[in-house]
Amino acid sequence: MPALPGVIDAKELAQIAKTELNEDPNRTKEDIKAIQSWIKKQPHLHKYINTDDQHILMFLRGCKFSLERTKEKLDVYNACRAACPEWFDNWDAMDPIVQEFIDLGVAVPLKGYDKNGRRVMVMRGSAIDPRRHNISDQMKFSMMISEMLMHEADQSSITGFVGVQDMEGMTLGHATQFSPSLGKKAMTIWQDAYPQRPKGMHFLNMPSLMEAIFGMMKSFSKEKMRDRLIVHPKGDLTMLHEAVGTEILPKEFGGTNGVLQDHIDELRRKMEKHQKWFLEQGKFKSNEKKRPGKSKNHSNLFGMEGSFRQLSFD
């Protein structure tokens, strides 16, 4: 089996973690225990959320080992899980819709890492049929994959993550499934809840009718993230090759890392392997009835439904 591209050896990875994330191996266990001790004192989190060492370490890394930021992000993450059952409950890798989305290549993590050691995921929104597929199912599928990748706790928890959104073939039917409230919810979870370190989101082949969607998502982004949302000229992969290298990309994107189907097959294998893990995830969420003070519900996490005007398309 050929070696995966972009793999960083343990010694170099530890040095990156120390330099970029303030990770001190002599203090890591103590920091994990400090967060676990804090969770035990939170009635809405204790006995309700995942407190495994590796899970806590993932959040510490995502917050550069700031204990206060880690507490805040863990709290928001689990509140979002409670507030969005349509995205976070009933995860089943063998569900026919999930299996269909795998086959279609709706979201495909690429095997290996890019030239900077980061994980890369290709997303193809046009692969779904807007007449048959619900966007909530698509978002749930993306969340399942994202959390599976985080659960693996591989080098991307240190080096970061890059998204490639290929918008070729997206139609008005795809566009009208989006709404500002959905965009706000997705960006809140991505930026404020997940411990992933997003290093860039590359948009390829963007149709003019999707520009309003892009503008909406950008308006919900923090300044640092806005700088990492990159729209590429249609049909031009030059900037993508410069950003991630060709060794990580499949042939369809001008790379040398097999063909996209190879990565789809690997995704199916991984998701089926994680089936038991997926089924267990629905139980992990905050119990907002037990939160001291004001609860974190859907409206104060994401804004009231209907408070945004619907997007209009010419």
UniProtKB/TrEMBL annotation:
- Pfam families attached to this UniProt entry: CRAL_TRIO
Gene Ontology terms: cellular component: membrane
Q: Which InterPro entries match?
A: CRAL-TRIO_dom, CRAL-TRIO_dom_sf, CRAL/TRIO_N_dom, CRAL/TRIO_N_dom_sf
Region called Disordered, residue ranges: 282-314
Q: Name one GO molecular function term.
A: phosphatidylinositol bisphosphate binding
* UniProt domain CRAL-TRIO: residue ranges: 98-261
Report the SUPFAM superfamilies cross-referenced here: CRAL/TRIO domain, CRAL/TRIO N-terminal domain
Query: Which branch of life, at top level?
Result: Eukaryota
Q: What protein am I looking at?
A: CRAL-TRIO domain-containing protein
Organism whose genome encodes this protein: Tigriopus californicus (Marine copepod)
* Lineage, top ranks: Eukaryota, Metazoa, Ecdysozoa, Arthropoda, Crustacea
